[in-house]
Amino acid sequence: MDDQDGYFGERVAAAYDESSGDMFKPGVIDETVGFLADLADGGRALELGIGTGRIALPLAQRGVQVHGIDLSRAMIARMRAKPGGDAIGVTVGDFATTRVDGTFSVAYLLFNTIMNLTTQAEQVACFRNAAAHLEPGGCFVIEVLIPELRRLPAGQNVVPYHVSPTRWAFDIYDVATQATSSNYIEVVDGRGEYRSIPFRYVWPSELDLMAQLAGLRLRERWDGWTREAFTSESRQHVSVWEKPAD
After folding, report:
1. Rounded distance, CA 52 to CA 72, Å?
2. Which parts of the chain are beta strand (E)?
3. Using CA atoms, how far apart are residues 89 and 26, in angstroms rounded to an integer?
4. Which of 223, 240, 237 is nearest to 127 (CA)?
5. What is the pTM of this model?
6. Res. 1 pLDDT band, cuts 50 70 90
7. Quick one: which of 26, 201, 206, 208 has the most CB atoms within 10 Å?
8. What is the pLDDT of residues 134-144, one digit of tens each?
9. pLDDT, tens digit, for every residue of 221-235?
10. DSSP-derived secondary structure letter, 82
11. What span is annotated as the signal peptide, if there is one (predicted)?
């Protein structure tokens, strides 16, 4: 682990935007940005874990004033190097506790990043921090997966999701503590490398309680950014909590 930048040091930052994952597809980005721009409704937006600017940059291009918080200087530098990146304000720090000036119409934490906070106390602190930055009537948005415990065979704690002759990727779950980790083994030129990143998975109902502790209330929950119905078969959710206006 890179101590200064957490698990998102220069090596990860350099390759982050090369991912072929759905989150980088133009249609997904457009849907996400449209959803957040509607909530901002002309106001300011605060991105917790702004990273390389995947969402912040196109959101700013929509006319929304965006400020970000991120621990990784390497990720921030990648955003700064992109067109428009130097115009977005960023505060370096832990998004669970770092405060910035002013209030915002919307704060958001995307792509499972709430799980990078590996204790319940840190996740609760994140909700309180987001709520403290919101103006009355403002919203906090989280995008996060549903823990895939239904895929665990009886007596096992590992869920593989990529297997090839040179690369293996799998998640390990501890259902007693909600601790999990994503693990990667890669063989290049006959040499093997192992990398593990810890997370804490969290259920929608638990997030609702965290929101309540922070003085927020659930406004809406969807399966995705195009507002599909959230059901027991959903594998992820986009949830919006609102700070009461009075």
Report:
1. 10
2. 45-48, 66-70, 89-92, 104-109, 134-145, 158-163, 167-174, 179-188, 191-200, 217-222, 236-242
3. 24
4. 240
5. 0.94
6. low
7. 201
8. 999 999 999 99
9. 999 999 999 999 999
10. S
11. none
Determine contact, residues 222/216, Cβ cutoff 8 Å. Answer: no
3-state secondary structure of 31: helix
Tell me how far apart the alpha carbons of residues 241 and 116 are, in angstroms, rounded to a whole number. Answer: 20
- Backbone φ and ψ for 121, nearest 5 degrees, come out as -60, -40
Cα separation of 154 and 152, whole Å? 6
Tokens of 149: 């415990």
Q: How far is residue 71 from each of residues 4, 108, 161, measured CA to CA in Å? A: 8, 16, 28
Q: How far apart are CA 171 and CA 28, in angstroms?
A: 25
Reading the block at residue 210, the tokens are 């965290």
Is 138 in a helix, a strand, or coil?
strand
- Residue 28: exposure state from Cβ atoms within 10 A (0-12, 13-18, ≥19): middle
∠ CA 161-195-116, nearest 5°, is 80
Dmax (CA) of the chain:
63
